[in-house]
Design brief:
It is built from four helices and twelve strands; from the N terminus they run H-H-E-E-E-E-E-E-H-E-E-E-H-E-E-E. The chain has a domain at 124-307. Helix 2 packs parallel to helix 3 (179-200). Helix content is 21%, strand content 15%. The longest helix is centred in the middle third of the chain and has 22 residues, at 179-200. Residues 1-64 and 72-108 have low confidence and may be disordered. The protein has helices at 2-18, 124-136, 179-200, 261-273; strands at 140-143, 147-148, 155-156, 160-164, 170-171, 175-177, 206-211, 236-244, 249-251, 279-281, 293-296, 306-307. A hairpin with a 4-residue loop joins strand 8 and strand 9. Strands 5, 7, 8, 9, 10, 11 and 12 form a seven-stranded mixed beta sheet that branches. It is α+β, with helices and mostly antiparallel strands. The radius of gyration is 52 Å and the shape is globular.
């Protein structure tokens, strides 16, 4: 009996010696109980730290915090959904930047040339007065049918075939032109060329004007692009020189620095031509006029004249 009592007293002492000491376990309230983490929602962060949660309603699992979804921005120029190709740009209109191709495939860096002017209309009354004055000056000419050029802008409504601009002065070859051009040529020869020649070479007379054909359907300076030539409209005549009654010739070559009487005579003739013609290009004025004098009656705004 004493052994039983001793064992009964010793058993609590043995158990107390073997179990670790623990403080009192607080009683958990129902609203503080946490649900075990869901298998689909790990309770640790990517860096291994413990995921904490704020108190919530009983039985409600706390989802991990997610960044707020940004509001969509207004569409801007150049914005488009990922993976969507940019729409094709429409063909550039005339006058676009140099980097943009024109609809016809040509570069738009150079704007197209303006359309050539239509064939010049002749006022019937002015035309008849012009023809009558030519006859009074002793000119020899023949009216021709209307010329419709093979290219846009070429042609003469009432052309004439001029053979002699003044009595006693012939063209080296007949030239087709408008009456206004022929009449201006006649006045220049009568009022400028003959008086200047009388001073430079007393007693000498002009017998032949060495010329090129008047009408020619082409662009200026025979270029491939650019404006229509005044030759294509019957407004121009080219002169390569003069032949005098003694057989001597004045050949049109650059004479700006020529100290002779021929140089002085040619400079006087070309300068005086600008009193009659609206365009005067003397020999040597540019690469296309090395050996002849270009004269035309192009009507410019406010009577502007180009003399070189």
């Amino acid at each position: 009996m004493f052994r039983s009592i001793a064992l009964t007293l010793a058993l609590p002492i043995i158990v107390a010696a073997t179990l670790p000491q623990q403080g009192p376990v607080p009683e958990t309230k129902p609203e503080q109980q946490q649900q075990p983490p869901s298998p689909a929602e790990p309770d640790t962060k990517a860096d291994g730290r413990k995921e904490t949660s704020s108190p919530g309603k009983p039985g409600e699992a706390k989802l991990p915090a997610t960044p707020p979804i940004p509001e969509p921005k207004p569409a801007q120029v150049g914005d488009r959904p990922a993976g969507e190709q940019a729409p094709e740009r429409p063909p550039a209109a005339s006058g676009a930047s140099p980097e943009t191709a024109a609809p016809d495939g040509k570069s738009a860096s150079t704007p197209p040339s303006p359309p050539p002017p239509p064939i010049e209309k002749e006022d019937p009354a002015e035309l008849q007065a012009c023809l009558a004055e030519l006859k009074t000056l002793g000119a020899s000419f023949e009216p021709l049918p209307r010329i419709d050029g093979e290219e846009p802008g070429c042609g003469i409504e009432s052309p004439i075939r001029l053979e002699s601009p003044l009595a006693g002065i012939k063209l080296s070859e007949p030239a087709t032109m408008r009456c206004e051009t022929a009449l201006t040529l006649s006045h220049w020869l009568k009022e400028t060329a003959e008086p200047a020649l009388e001073v430079a070479k007393p007693g000498r007379k002009i017998t032949v004007v060495n010329n090129a054909p008047g009408y020619s359907c082409r662009l200026r300076n025979n270029a491939d692009t650019g404006k229509i030539s005044e030759h294509a409209r019957g407004n121009a005549v080219d002169i390569a020189g003069f032949t005098f009654d003694d057989g001597e010739k004045l050949i049109m070559t650059p004479k700006e620095q020529d100290p002779t009487m021929d140089g002085a005579l040619q400079r006087t003739l070309t300068a005086g031509a600008c009193l009659h013609f609206s365009t005067v290009l003397s020999p040597g004025s540019d690469a296309s006029h090395k050996d002849h004098l270009h004269l035309d009656v192009l009507d410019r705004k406010k009577g502007y004249r180009f003399c070189r």
